[in-house]
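New to this. Help decode the following:
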Amino acid sequence: MNTIPENSSINKIIDKHLQGGWTFERVEEGTSTFVYRLTQLDQTLYLRLSKGDSDFKAEVLVHQVLTEAGVRLPEVLYVGCLDTYPYMIISQIEGESLESRASHNLAGVLFKAGKDLAQIHKQPVEGVGFLSLNDQGLRGQSDDFYEDYHRHLAEDLAALDYYDFTRSEKASIQEASRLYLNLIKDTKPCLVHGDYDISHIFHKDGSYQGLIDFGEVRGHHPMYDLATFLAFYQNQDHLDMVLKGYTSRRSVTIRDRQAIDYIAFFLLLRFLGKKYNHRLKGHFQKLMRLQLNRLKEWEADE
């Protein structure tokens, strides 16, 4: 695992690829990368350095494929490695995220973000989970959903003891986990953004600008990103706005809608397994309880 790079390393990368007068500042990074904002007068670029084993080869190919498919996302300008730090320099998407500032045209922005999401999901991949690049193309770390399902399940269920779930709620979580696998196990994986939320949807003056941060890209169920959007915001109205754009390019069945809720549940279970010592653990538990209530609605319909 890489530590925070020295400023001298950042300057070496800048000097190698960019001409004169660039300054940099570290900004809040993602789970797997250190991120720096590079500026020169009115120009802005972003430098991302890997914290771990990623060499960005899979992500670079994803950017290329999605750009050719018409998805609006940053352009990859340079890729390289300095010492133990694989890095990439990407262009800036103009505007700001919906998390930073709400849009007066929220429905229109989310509609177009949904259209781009559907275009992402048209790209097939082999396997489930984080992607690597081999001779056959992009491949997930697990062979199938069954292998991916069991990767962290035992530890995530064990972590429930750190929360104040009732015995009945724990039983519901175990049953929902079983139903989750049955629902998705036979689905063909596709490319997914992996962290689709309002912080990664950009707009300017009410106009959709594009999606950012493909550092969590992976192979998974086509409803994975919609489930992510739902799980951590629990805002059905906003999800419906995304779905309007999404369904203009890709159909969504009743079973798909059920999958959204069950994948959202399983995402929250994974989050609880990782965050039981987090200061906001009570908030994450609240989200899980809200999601369990959504699953009860499906049980009532059966």
Observations:
- The chain is about 45% helix and 20% strand.
